[in-house]
Design a protein that fits this description.
The chain is of the alpha+beta class. Helix content is about 35%, strand content about 20%. The radius of gyration is 24 Å and the shape is globular. About 50% of the residues are buried. It binds adenosine monophosphate. Adenosine monophosphate (AMP) binds next to β12, β19 and β20. This is Indole-3-acetic acid-amido synthetase GH3.5. Keywords: Ligase.
Amino acid sequence: MLGSPLTHIASLEGIPISPVKMRVVSLEGVIDEFEALTKDAGRTQRETLQKILEQNGETEYLHKFGLGGRTDPESYKACIPLVTHCDLEPYIQRIADGDTSPVLTGKPISSISLSSGTTQGRPKFIPFNDELVRSTMQMYRTSFAFRNREYPIGNGKALQFIYGSKQAKTKGGLIATTATTNVYRSEQFKRTMKDIQSQCTSPDEVIFGSDFQQSLYCHLLCGLIYSDEVQIISSTFAHSIVHAFRTFEQVWEELCTDIREGVLSSRITLPSVREAVSKLLSPNPSLADSIWSKCVRLSNWYGVIPALWPNAKYVYGIMTGSMEPYSKKLRHYAGRLPLMSADYGSSEGWIGANVNPSVPPELSSFAVLPNIGYFEFIPLEKPKGQQLAKTASTVHYTEYEPVGLTQVEVGKEYEIVITNFAGLYRYRLGDVVRVAGFHNSTPELQFICRRSLMLSINIDKNTEKDLQMVVQEAAKLLAAEKLEVVDFTSHVDTSTEPGHYVIFWELSSDTTGEVLRSCSDILDLSFVDAGYVGSRKTGAIGALELRVVRRGTFEKILEHYIGLGAALSQYKTPRFVGLSNNKVLQILCRNVTGCYFSTAYAV
Ligand code: AMP
């Protein structure tokens, strides 16, 4: 039934539906539920907070602050302080160590999620329970229902580049793994994927294989085996899709050989993965020929996705925030297919669904689901001029009292505070968002950046977003040379006096020193933060240095993080590497092929 619109899906746990509707519910029903939840989002929020506090009323944490069983927002805000992860660490550590008393949650914490940790250099421990799986499914279904309305898909499969990560046990015996792995392992995930016609083309052995290179190869292979059935190409983050197709460029001939002969490449050595994938393989010379002839006709791999997956309707994954730099390459691979940016959430909990899927990824916003948590927003205002100092590690905005979900204003920026069923109370997420508009009475948020400051030597302040824009500006020079920045990161070198910014670039191929010197000038000039410009002019910050690294360096960094237990599905290239992250710094420094200092501010 390829191409025919999907109208019915089954078993929608987590959404209040009538018993009669329990077995078969239309996607329109999912949309109706969403409309109902957001119609009076303020009321849904009060009810959600009440539920969270009732469920967790007996916890040590809520007792400590004397909430005394009250569940209204006013008492809650008056008694419970705003916290960051550091404040909760001792509690989470006790849970990890085996304390089974209700520390943070009434219901037991089923496992510990490890956040990607690529920003801080070490993973954070976050409590995980079934409520998070439930809200994840609600999020998937909601955005799927909206997507399907505009881009209907029929019975089929999804080529999903998803990867489980290593599972460790905490001292107290809880499983500790990434949030995505916790979700992929759940029964509800499988059911929902089936419901929304997004079953992965790869068997579980591939998703949970212990070697991500082998898993990636097999994802590509299984995707090709089922090429006619694939309707969606996706991953959690856009980076994984780009990474997959960069790999495809290297291994496509080998994949063709496997399909032609029906024998899996010897590069797949893990017995469980070999066995599972071999079952799907049988000699298919005509498919191999067709893939081969399509690949050789492509120009620089433009449009490889629709060429090989002719029934694919779109490419789906998070493309906002730190994933923006990959969308250009993704567009190249996707050719005529639309790119759709996926929802907004974190290991700590989900926030919003993309309910306007046809909006281009750069402009995507996320409608907050008002029943998955209680949300507050700290109004942030950029300081004018230099009158405000920065704190050690975050961008210093002027902060105001947190406001509720329905009190935010269009065009303004906020830091999100979440309270949810996983035992996070008034937890500052550290993300800055801008309100783009409203869907009914729930806000649609645009992701702006992580609040943490990356590049700072003295009075200068630059965030990940600033770096991203600067790199984008300088990379325009490369476009003329048909070159691209494969990946990038930054560092502050204070071993020189004065200290200076270092930008590391991996390029798709070589270019002249002249071009790279011009790039380093543009990088230097494109940091427009007044503190930086002033310091550069007075010489309080030295000339920016562009260091070009060998091809494959960022792959080594990725492997390093995977080795530490990160999941490829959740991987985000660290955009700043500090001295404390010495392993990654070593990988970068060992692979430098050329350094180019800016002469932009030379006097
Ligand atoms: P993690 O802690 O590994 O789960 O990563 C969560 C973080 O990823 C969030 O706090 C955001 O900074 C970022 N993130 C998640 N979803 C999105 C999105 N749709 N757009 C931009 N950034 C996102």
